[in-house]
User: What shape does this take?
Amino acid sequence: MVRGDRVNSRGTLAGCAAVVALGLGAELAKPATADMGFFLYAAGRVLDGARLYRDVVDLNPPLIFALNIPIVLLARVTGLSDVLLYRLGSALFVGILFLYSARLILRYVLPGDSARARYLVLLLCFSLFGLARIDFGQREHFVLALLVPYLLLVAAESAGRWPPPGEAAVIGVMAGAAIGLKPQFVLVLAVLEVFRRTRSAPTERWRPTAELAGVLGFLVVYGVAVLWLTPTYLTVASLLGGASVQYLREPFVDLLAVGPGAPLVGFVLLALLVLRRWTRTPTLVAVLAWATVACFLAAAAVGKDFRYHFYPALGLACMLLGLLAADVPTAAVRLGERVYGRTSQTLLATIVIVVSGWAVLELAGGDAGERHQRVELAELVRAVQARAAGRPVGVLSYTIESAFPLVNYAGVGLASRFPCMWLLAVSYWDQLKTGGRLQYHALGEMTPVERYFLNAVREDLTTAQPRLLVVLRPARDAAVNGQRRLHYIQYFGRDPVLAALLSEYRLTDRQGEYLLYERREAAPASADPPSTAPGTQDVIRTELKDVGLGRLDRESVIGLAVFAVCWVLMAARDRRRSGA
Assistant: This one.
């Protein structure tokens, strides 16, 4: 290796180290996400003897819970925070997969172009550790890291370079694990296989491959393990699957048009059509483009407007954007090429600046809104610790963010098998979206899902007899308030058993949007019992999208400003080059 290559390799290594340090540092400076808290809590419950999908009910396949069991065990042995270990473990897991993907890039994908290979490694590092941000540690974060080796393998084989069969089988096992975490991403593998086999010679088109054998082998073993270790999963999935599809559902076409990341994915694909004759790695670019489309379609097919569902598509689109920006010609003749070329470079610079700037802000404690949320969470944690007496807490709320990471930080259990009461919300989904008074169903009018939910809550609360109830207070019963219209005291108070249970509680504290009810023997004599009075206030809306600016939020507005500045600077650069 010549001296210049060593210097450039060290520069790439330093750049990757800076991206990882900034991304991980920003993650460690924030409270845990709700999903992170729930996965750790569920794994702990399983270790304590609870049965998954009976004592802890969720529709996620069991692989994510299995991956969290070693983390909880290590936390109990060492006394370290399970949230800290989850984050460090996630960074280590993604980091190992990143290093392996970097090896594939250098050895098989771009072995004859070390400069471009190092650049692609840096792009991948940014996508996995910088762009992840609020999606860090989500299943989709792991899915992208697990799928990248497979798409790199397809790119290498399409260029005539094959890794050994054993290594290819391991890559297939990784891709199978990605599908085990999020089954909808099987679409990505299907698209990549079609891409590869349509470009193969007719005699090789249907040839079985080691990597495909690895995928199928993992899925068979995983399926048998699910049926053996968690036999009730299919029962719960069949009962609640339809409700899950309906809950928070957005039309597929709407998500394709305006879903999270749709503008970036759409622009990158258009830029590829315009700039494709200038790409120096056409096979790799084609693989990334097809994988980006497949990831976006897989996320939109779920029908939920959650950013983390679209993170794999965002990560791959960012890598594709980086390759296009690097291949922009300095003197393109066509106007469209000049416009898309400059826009690609400007957009890439904007993404890097905004993502890095936000990470620095999070390292410093976040903006005013984030600091206020942390203070509210800390106060609620202290209140729960002081009043729960170490016993499980009943949390009555439609959102998982009410219970997690609250119970993790407070060190208490949850007096319900459900992480939140979304099943109540989905049982009244049509009413919640329309005007008029919310009418709760009589027992004979309930669907099987609602009856299952009510019976389960009754069983859980009467068994746990929690000392403390944390109730999300209801908003005014108007369509504008959506799920906040739900009145939990009114709803559960219609059941005689739960009404008798609720009568044992008294209101002792208010924390932000939550009402805290303690058992009567622990509350002052003058404290009020749970109230069935309707809510009178509306939900306060602070996001720009709530006042008619579509999907624009503060980060998007800042991004537009940064984009404008970068565009002006790059236009000035191009004029200087033209003059020279």
Notes: The longest strand covers residues 505-511. The two ends are 35 Å apart (CA to CA). The CA atoms of residues 25 and 363 lie 6 Å apart. The chain is about 65% helix and 5% strand.
